[in-house]
Amino acid sequence: xxxxxxxxxxxxxxxxxxxxxxxxxxxxxxxxxxxxxxxxxxxxxxxxxxxxxxxxxxxxxxxxxxxxxxxxxxxxxxxxxxxxxxxxxxxxxxxxxxxxxxxxxxxxxxxxxxxxxxxxxxxxxxxxxxxxxxxxxxxxxxxxxxxxxxxxxxxxxxxxxxxxxxxxxxxxxxxx
Length: 176
Known about the structure:
Strand content: 15-25%
Number of helices: 7
Radius of gyration: 26 Å
Helix content: 40-55%
Shape: elongated
Largest sheet: 3 strands, antiparallel
Strand order of the largest sheet: 1-6-7
Number of domains: 2
Number of strands: 7
């Protein structure tokens, strides 16, 4: 942190802000959310360093025993690599990242399902991308069969590829 005050040179940014004496230690994280009756949510806390509203509160303890809460952006911005490493290797951080990944994956699945429902006639009219046919009847399978099979059997990255392929198939001039 840049400073014009000579007495603050060499001090940790949290120390200058009056949050305690360095070194600082990450002690955990929690989620603080306000949920309104209509289901919308917003951050339920505020960062003790910058005052910004935060949803994920990172709890930090100073050498003199003071505990305070920070947003993850403030942990990244101050440049304390030890504190940042402790945060990014914590179970709370991993759980949060996994939750975000699950939410992104759920959005892709919902988009594929919506596309299949809306465009099922167009997909049923297109041939299977690999040219497969039904093993029992020998009838040619369709792009709709492929999309449903892929939705149920592939992982997250495969679903993203399926969505891209479906959109490409539907945007080709032969589809109307």
